[in-house]
Design a protein that fits this description.
Distance between the termini: 26 Å
Shape: globular
Oligomer: single chain
Largest sheet: 6 strands, parallel
Number of strands: 8
């Protein structure tokens, strides 16, 4: 995989238990979508994500929807070029860990979330985390957008 230096986009539509560290060597990769790979969220925290993934210098868009995450994977906080992140339909505990994005992703300006968790409506605590995250993101970039999706059709809007 590391020989595919000019590869721009990867979209995985199958179950994965981890991501290969060689992805970090793809210097042209601008979009990575591993949404709907529930097995990633089933593994112990950050085990499926080699630290090298945080060094993907050209990655601008990342899809991590429907993975069952309870926290934002640590490697995401190192993605200096990340502009767009989709975290729809993960465990609502993930909202308490969104601050890593404010500190580690200076170019982030669009975050796709979901009004409900997999289990149903969000708790008041999760709403408080979401509102605080949105306020911090907007303070950093007044043009930033936090999109709270309500539609079950996540695939078409992920490619916007």
């Amino acid at each position: 995989i590391s020989s595919l230096k000019k590869l721009k986009e990867i979209s995985v539509n199958c179950s994965l238990s981890s991501l290969p560290k060689e992805l970090s060597e793809l210097s042209g990769l601008t979009k990575l979508d591993v949404s709907c790979t529930g097995d990633l969220g089933d593994a112990p925290q950050d085990e499926p994500f080699p630290a090298e993934l945080g060094r993907m210098k050209s990655l601008r868009e990342l899809g991590l929807s429907y993975c069952g995450f309870r926290a934002v994977p640590a490697f995401v906080g190192g993605l200096q070029s990340l502009e767009i992140l989709y975290l729809r339909r993960n465990d609502e505990q993930i909202y308490a860990t969104l601050d890593v994005l404010i500190r580690g992703c200076p170019r982030l300006h669009k975050v796709g979330l979901y009004r409900d968790s997999v289990e149903g409506p969000l708790s008041p605590e999760s709403w408080a985390h979401l509102e605080a995250f949105e306020a911090k993101l907007l303070a950093k970039d007044p043009n930033a957008v936090v999109i709270f999706e309500e539609s079950e059709d996540f695939s078409s809007s992920e490619s916007e």
